[in-house]
């Protein structure tokens, strides 16, 4: 018996997070979540640290890892182990869309390395649920099983 769920991502809303950055939540579970992240040209994902592993596959567009200068393009995969710190930005004239699976928190850091804010499964889920309420749609039970 299969318990797999198909999700037509092209039909899902982009949930605005901050100027130039939005997400399409795909699935929330107890210890992490999966999403598509869209970063518009000129937008930067500021310095951050992962407390758990992150797996990121570029679906379209390119991004530059600011700390190394590496360009990550369509089809490229990046593994970020717990403790990894970096910053990156959209590279080029088209939005960068990345499929990301995250465990733990993403802690955003100031210049001294102090945590100024963070995102995790709970904060991302809250953003998704608030967006659903704002646009008047029920949360998709395939994305947020206990909230559908």
Folded structure, characterized:
The protein has one helix spanning 121-135, and strands at residues 15-18, 21-29, 32-39, 44-50, 54-60, 62-65, 71-72, 77-80, 85-91, 96-103, 106-109, 115-119. With 148 residues, it is mainly beta. Strand 11 and strand 12 form a beta hairpin.
Question: How would you summarize this macromolecular structure in one to three sentences?
Answer:
With 148 residues, the protein is mainly beta.
> What's the structural domain tally?
1
Radius of gyration: 15 Å
CATH architecture title: Sandwich
CATH topology: Jelly Rolls
Distance between the termini: 22 Å
Give me the strand/helix succession.
EEEEEEEEEEEEH
Number of helices: 1
What order do the strands of the largest sheet run in, or round the barrel if closed? 1-2-3-10-5-8
Provide the helix percentage.
10-25%
Major sheet: 6 strands, antiparallel
The secondary structure category is mainly beta
Query: What would CATH call the homologous superfamily?
Result: Jelly Rolls
Q: Indicate the low-confidence ranges by residue numbers.
A: none
Which descriptor suits the 3D outline? globular
CATH class bucket? Mainly Beta
Q: Which whole number gives the mean pLDDT?
A: 93
Strand content: over 45%
Topology:
Layout: E1 15-18, E2 21-29, E3 32-39, E4 44-50, E5 54-60, E6 62-65, E7 71-72, E8 77-80, E9 85-91, E10 96-103, E11 106-109, E12 115-119, H1 121-135
Antiparallel strand pairs: 1-2, 2-3, 3-10, 4-9, 4-11, 5-8, 5-10, 6-7, 6-9, 11-12
């Amino acid at each position: 018996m299969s318990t797999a769920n198909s999700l037509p991502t092209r039909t899902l809303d982009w949930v605005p997070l901050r100027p130039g950055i939005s997400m399409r939540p795909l699935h929330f579970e107890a210890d992490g979540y999966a999403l598509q992240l869209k970063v518009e040209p000129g937008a930067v994902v500021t310095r951050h640290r992962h407390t758990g592993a992150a797996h990121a596959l570029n679906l379209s567009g390119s991004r530059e890892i600011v700390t190394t200068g590496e360009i990550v393009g369509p089809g490229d995969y990046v593994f970020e182990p717990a403790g990894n710190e970096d910053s990156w930005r959209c590279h080029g004239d088209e939005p960068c869309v990345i499929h990301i699976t995250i465990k733990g928190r993403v802690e955003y850091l100031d210049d001294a390395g102090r945590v100024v804010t963070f995102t995790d499964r709970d904060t991302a889920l809250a953003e998704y649920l608030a967006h659903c309420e704002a646009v008047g749609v029920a949360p998709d039970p395939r994305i947020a099983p206990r909230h559908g």
